[in-house]
């Protein structure tokens, strides 16, 4: 009845064509034409009728719900009960995938045979079509977002294995990636603690000479103090104070949804591969950091296909950044090492 009403109103009142109505409502054009033709025929008969009883009968006929001839329709074998069982087996497959048992999942033929064993008279093709339809309905769609200059910048941590002073070490790479310019900047630290988090932000904002309107983070402990409910997150005091000082908004991505900060996710892998695949051995930490900054500058100034370099794009973006206040100087990041003599002294004590 709702579809019938929308079709009649759109055709007679809004003067839309049958093709437009069919496209807007997602219906077959023949269905739209049948409704309009049937309505026009009955309306003409109603206007021509002189007998009151005939008018009442035609009025009732016009506003009645559409009727369908189902006498020749075959019995549907794909019942709700079968669909429920198909969903059950697909959920079992998802659980096995999470447990690392991908090779022990049921294929379509296995689900079909299981249903036959349960007594359901159903065809293999019908099962395949149902599984395909369910998979398409549950598949997520990703829409590429468009950003304005100075609007969004993403932050993430990444590990890089280096050899420093002859010792193998895992360094933490703080990476920033603005969404509009695709400029990349980072710094190396020995840990992912709050001091490193604050220092990286202060250094990044100083480097670009401004502040982005919104920063995007994952659910790291440095940024998220605790989860409130299923989706709400409470920021840490350090992040809250940092955002208040610099005046930026912040947003957390959903759990296990790395695509929500895809710029920086790709940037971490890109910088680690492009920079440290060439050289990963250094005399000291200072040399590693200096090499990292030189290579970052080289990559950002590299011309891109049919586009300006990331460095040039950042220069254009700077006019849209928030005003930069004096450096948020709350920590000094240093590395202290105990000498061999001190180690032996502590062992004796």
Describe this structure in words.
This protein has 349 residues and is α/β, with parallel strands linked by helices. It folds into three domains: 2-63, no CATH class; 80-138; 152-320, 2-Layer Sandwich (Nucleotidyltransferase, domain 5), CATH 3.30.420.10. The protein contains 13 helices and eight strands. The strands form two sheets. Strands 1, 2, 3, 4, 7 and 8 form a six-stranded mixed beta sheet that branches. The chain has a two-stranded antiparallel ribbon with strand order 5-6. Strand 5 and strand 6 form a beta hairpin. The termini are far apart.
Summarize the structure.
This protein is of the alpha/beta class and 349 residues long. It has 13 helices and eight strands.
Structural class: alpha/beta
**Would you state the CATH class of the largest domain?**
Alpha Beta
Q: How many domains make up the 3D coordinates?
A: 3
The share of residues in helices is: 40-55%
What is the CATH homologous superfamily assignment of the largest domain?
Answer: Ribonuclease H-like superfamily/Ribonuclease H
Which regions contain 5 or more consecutive residues with pLDDT less than 50? 256-262
């Amino acid at each position: 009845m709702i579809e019938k009403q929308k079709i009649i109103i759109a055709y007679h009142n809004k003067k839309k064509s049958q093709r437009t109505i069919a496209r807007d409502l997602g219906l077959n054009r023949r269905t739209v034409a049948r409704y309009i033709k049937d309505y026009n025929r009955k309306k003409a008969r109603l206007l021509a009728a002189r007998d009151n009883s005939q008018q009442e009968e035609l009025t009732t006929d016009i506003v009645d719900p559409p009727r369908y001839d189902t006498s020749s329709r075959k019995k549907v074998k794909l019942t709700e009960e079968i669909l429920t069982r198909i969903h059950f087996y697909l959920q079992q497959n998802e659980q096995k995938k999470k447990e690392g048992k991908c090779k022990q999942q049921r294929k379509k033929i296995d689900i079909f045979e299981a249903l036959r064993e349960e007594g359901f008279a159903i065809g293999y093709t019908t099962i395949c079509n149902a599984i395909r339809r369910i998979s398409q309905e549950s598949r997520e769609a990703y829409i590429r977002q468009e950003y304005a200059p100075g609007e969004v910048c993403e932050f993430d941590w990444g590990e890089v294995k280096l050899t420093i002073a002859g010792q193998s070490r895992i360094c933490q790479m703080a990476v920033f990636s603005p969404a509009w310019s695709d400029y990349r900047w980072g710094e190396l630290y020995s840990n992912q603690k709050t001091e490193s988090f604050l220092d990286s932000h202060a250094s990044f904002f100083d480097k670009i000479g401004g502040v982005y309107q919104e920063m995007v983070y994952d659910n790291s402990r440095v940024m998220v103090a605790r989860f409130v409910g299923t989706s709400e997150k409470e920021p840490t005091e350090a992040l809250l104070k940092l955002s208040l000082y610099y005046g930026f908004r912040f947003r957390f991505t959903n759990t296990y949804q790395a695509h929500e900060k895809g710029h920086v996710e790709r940037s971490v892998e890109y910088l680690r591969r492009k920079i440290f695949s060439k050289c990963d051995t250094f005399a000291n930490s200072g040399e590693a950091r200096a090499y990292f900054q030189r290579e970052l500058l080289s990559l950002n100034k590299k011309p891109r296909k049919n586009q300006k370099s990331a460095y040039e794009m950042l220069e254009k973006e700077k006019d849209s950044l928030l005003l930069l206040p004096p450096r948020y100087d709350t920590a000094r990041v240093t590395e202290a090492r105990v000498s061999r003599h001190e180690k032996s002294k502590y062992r004796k004590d």
